[in-house]
Design a protein that fits this description.
Structural class of chain B: alpha/beta
Number of strands of chain B: 9
Order of helices and strands of chain B: EEEHEEHHHEHEEEH
Radius of gyration of chain A: 18 Å
Shape of chain A: globular
Strand order of the largest sheet of chain B: 5-6-7-3-8-9
Largest interface: A-B, 23 and 26 residues
CATH superfamily of chain B: P-loop containing nucleotide triphosphate hydrolases
Number of domains of chain A: 1
Largest sheet of chain A: none
Number of strands of chain A: 0
Strand content of chain A: under 5%
Strand content of chain B: 15-25%
Order of helices and strands of chain A: HHHHHHHHH
Number of helices of chain A: 9
Radius of gyration of chain B: 17 Å
Distance between the termini of chain A: 24 Å
Oligomer: heterodimer
Number of domains of chain B: 1
Number of helices of chain B: 6
C-alpha cells in the first residue's frame, strides 16, 4: 500500500478520534480566545497600536495553541503502544508522521479560523481586503509550526519530563518561523497592505527544509 | 488455510545484544527458529523475553548482532515478514470501536475485503455483538481478544505473542489454544513468552529459557520442554 493511501487511512483515524472526543480543539480554542480577549481588555489598544502589535500577539496565540495541541499527538500512541501496531502495519513509517502532520495542521487552521474574527473585532483590524493573502501566510506559518512541533512531539514522547521538553525544544527552533510569519502578517495589517514575498519565500524554505529532513530521518524518530 | 512453503519463514538471531544505557537486556543471544516451529520462551521477569520478541518484530533494533530471515537468511525482511504481534499492551485504540480498530489495521495492511475479514475475526473472538462498542468500555479480557484479532488480521507467517493469555477467561484461553493450534498446523512460525504450563504451552514444540538476557536452556539442545517451562514459573 502506498505512502499516501496509508497516510489517508491514518488521517481518517486522527480526525475520527478528535471529532469524537473534541479534547484538543475545545481546550485549545478556549485557551487562545481567553489570551486574545485578556490582552484586548488589559491594553485596550488603539487601531494604530493593534496594527503594530496585533500580528505579534496573533502569532504568539498560535504558538500557544500549537504547543498545547502538538504534545498529545504521539503521546496518545504511547498509552496502549499503538505506535508499535502502526509501525508493524504501514509499509513506510513516514505515513504515520504525515498523517499526524496533516491532522495537526488542520486542527491549527481550524483554531485560527475561529480566532481571527474575534481578533478582528476586538482589535479593530479590518481583514476583508486581505483574506486570501492572510490565508496563505497562515497556511505556511501553521505548516511550519506543525512540522517542527510534530517532529519534536515524536522525539519528546519517548523521553522523561516530556511535558517540559517539547516547549523547551520548540521555542528556539520556531523563532525564525515566528519572526517571518509576524512580519508577513504585519505587512498585511498595514495601512497599505502588501504581500511580502521575501518573508513568504522564507516560510516556504523553512517548511520544505524541515519536511525534507523529517522525510529522510523520520524512520529513526519512531524507533524505540 | 495452509501456508505455502514459499511463505514459511524462520528466524535466526546471531549474537544479539540489546543494551539500555549500561544495562544489558539481551547478551549474545543466538537462536535459530525453523519455519513452522512453535517456540515457548520462558524466564523470570526481566529476563529479556519481551525484548527478544520486540527485536523479532523489528520494533527494536539490536545494539549488536543481527536478525535474519530464512530460507534465504537475508537481513532485508521479506514482504511476508509482517509479524502478527500480541504485546503486553493491547495495541488498539480505546477511542475507537472494536470494528473500527480492526478495519483501520486491515486497511493499513491492504487486506482484500477488509470488512469481511474483520467480521469473521470478530465472530471468532466472540465480539461480533459488541462490534460497535468503544474499546474503552471493554474488560481487560475483551481488549485482549481485540488485540489477538488485530494480530491475526493478515494471517501472518510469523506470530509473536507476549504472554497472550493475560486477562483471558478459561473459554478465552481455550479459544486461543485452538487458534494457535490451527495456525501452527498451517505452517505459521510461533514465538511466545509464557509463564508456566497451560493449554497454550502444550502447543510448544520447543522451549527456551532466558536468564538475565542470555539463553540458559533450550529443549532442542538438552533438557525437557516441561522442565524449562516449569523452572521459570517456580
Amino acid at each position: 500500500m502506498s505512502l499516501f493511501s496509508n497516510a489517508s487511512v491514518l488521517l481518517g483515524k486522527e480526525l475520527r478520534t478528535e471529532f469524537r472526543s473534541r479534547e484538543l480543539l475545545t481546550t485549545t480554542v478556549v485557551f487562545i480566545l481567553m489570551v486574545v480577549v485578556l490582552f484586548s481588555f488589559t491594553f485596550d489598544p488603539t487601531r494604530e497600536e493593534s496594527r503594530r502589535f496585533g500580528p505579534g500577539l496573533l502569532w504568539l496565540a498560535f504558538l500557544f495553541a500549537a504547543s498545547l495541541m502538538l504534545q498529545p499527538g504521539f503521546l496518545r500512541e504511547q498509552t496502549n503502544d499503538t505506535l508499535s501496531a502502526l509501525r508493524l502495519s504501514v509499509s513506510d513509517p513516514f505515513a504515520i508522521f504525515l498523517s499526524k502532520l496533516c491532522a495537526n495542521t488542520l486542527f491549527l487552521l481550524i483554531t485560527e479560523l475561529l480566532l481571527l474574527p474575534v481578533f478582528a473585532v476586538l482589535y479593530n483590524v479590518p481583514l476583508f481586503g486581505v483574506v486570501p493573502q492572510l490565508a496563505l501566510v497562515l497556511f505556511l506559518g501553521s505548516l511550519g509550526l506543525s512540522v517542527t512541533g510534530t517532529t519534536l512531539s515524536a522525539i519528546s514522547a519517548q523521553a522523561r519530563m516530556r511535558e517540559l521538553l517539547l516547549p523547551l525544544l520548540l521555542l528556539p527552533l520556531l523563532t525564525p518561523l515566528l519572526i517571518a510569519s509576524t512580519e508577513a502578517t504585519a505587512a498585511l495589517f498595514a495601512e497599505n497592505p502588501t504581500l511580502r514575498w521575501d518573508w513568504l519565500a522564507f516560510l516556504i524554505a523553512f517548511d520544505v527544509i524541515f519536511l525534507t529532513a523529517v522525510w529522510l530521518f523520520g524512520e529513526y524518530l519512531l524507533e524505540e | 488455510m495452509t501456508l505455502p512453503e514459499s511463505r514459511r519463514i524462520g528466524l535466526r538471531f546471531e549474537n544479539i545484544d540489546k543494551r539500555y544505557g549500561g544495562l544489558f537486556a539481551l547478551r549474545r543471544v543466538s537462536l535459530e527458529i525453523a519455519p513452522g516451529e512453535c517456540v515457548a520462551l520462558a524466564g523470570r521477569n526481566g529476563s529479556g523475553k519481551t525484548t527478544l520478541l520486540r527485536i523479532a518484530a523489528r520494533l527494536v533494533r539490536p545494539s549488536a548482532g543481527k536478525l535474519t530471515f530464512s530460507p534465504t537468511h537475508t537481513e532485508a525482511s521479506p514482504a511476508a515478514m509482517t509479524a502478527g504481534f500480541v504485546a503486553h499492551a493491547t495495541m488498539v485504540y480505546d477511542e475507537l470501536t472494536a470494528e473500527e480498530n480492526l478495519l483501520l489495521f486491515a486497511r493499513l495492511l491492504a487486506i482484500a475485503k477488509p470488512a469481511e475479514r474483520v467480521e469473521k475475526l470478530l465472530r471468532d473472538v466472540g465480539l461480533l455483538e459488541r462490534r460497535d462498542s468503544l474499546v474503552r468500555t471493554f474488560s481487560r479480557g475483551m481488549r485482549q481478544r481485540v488485540a489477538i484479532a488485530r494480530a491475526l488480521l493478515h494471517e501472518p507467517a510469523v506470530l509473536l505473542l507476549d504472554e497472550p493469555s493475560t486477562g483471558l477467561d478459561p473459554q478465552g484461553v481455550n479459544w486461543l489454544a485452538e487458534t494457535l493450534w490451527r495456525l501452527h498446523g498451517s505452517g505459521c512460525t510461533i514465538l511466545m513468552s509464557l509463564h508456566g504450563e497451560s493449554e497454550i504451552s502444550a502447543l510448544a514444540t520447543r522451549g527456551i529459557r532466558l536468564d538475565a538476557g542470555s539463553v540458559a536452556a533450550d529443549s532442542q539442545t538438552g533438557g525437557s520442554l516441561r522442565s524449562i517451562l516449569t523452572f521459570a514459573s517456580a
